[in-house]
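call fold(seq) -> tokens
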Amino acid sequence: MKMFAGNVLPVITAPVMCDGSPSNLPLLLLVEDNVDLRTFIKSQLTEWYRVEAAADGEEGWEKARILLPDVVVSDVVMPRMTGIELLQHLKSYMATSHIPVILLTEKSAVENQIEALDYGADFYITKPFRQDYLAAAIRNLVARRRKLFAALVEGGKVTTQTPEVQLITSQDDRFLRKMVAVVEEKMADVNFNVDAVALAMNMSRTTFYRKFKSLTNLAPVEFVRDMRLKRAKEYLDAGAGNVAEVAYLVGFSTPKYFTACFKAHFTITPTDYLEQRRGL
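ret:
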């Protein structure tokens, strides 16, 4: 496989990212001031991503705030706003701090790479590069982050990252911890909903929803429901009440709805679960 240099056009052989319609594909924001390279990279990635393009860092920053893409691939040396400046903006703004960033540059000096990594870049790729390498870097980064965030919210608890896997910013760590704390505090309130969560997080409903969905691959309402069900199971294990009492303890409007959700999540009704517990 040749590298992209001049007019060489290699072919990407990466596997399909996800099934379903194009609207379900991850959203990638490509920020590159070289028109030919921007057009080429976009054409090579559209089979696996919904690709939005920007001609410089300033345009990229505006699009990132509006679109909240799953990943940003950006050149470093650009007019109006460099890739490093774009990276700083993305990582310091709460609504975009979770977005992974891959930087592309002709600079190969170690100090330039260290600067990029210090500001929170997830990958630093030096031009010229193999297009299949870029595709693999994007694919693996998106997959690793989704796996990490699934683990972060498992059981309603935010876990500690291992030293070798630092894919979450301190802002996002605080965001998830606060989210868990808010839900734990308010879950008994049957009127507690996504709007209340967003308000508690000091974010607009739309921004909060899109950021949380991007972080965890769950809608906030699904996360709240799952936390309620896991807490309900803990109450049932502890003998804190019967099915109806536990349903109200964790904020379900009716025992019937609680039973339906519990069975869908745990593949057993809460009544049968209690019977099983008593038989232990």
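Residues 170-278 form a domain with the Arc Repressor Mutant, subunit A fold (CATH 1.10.10.60).
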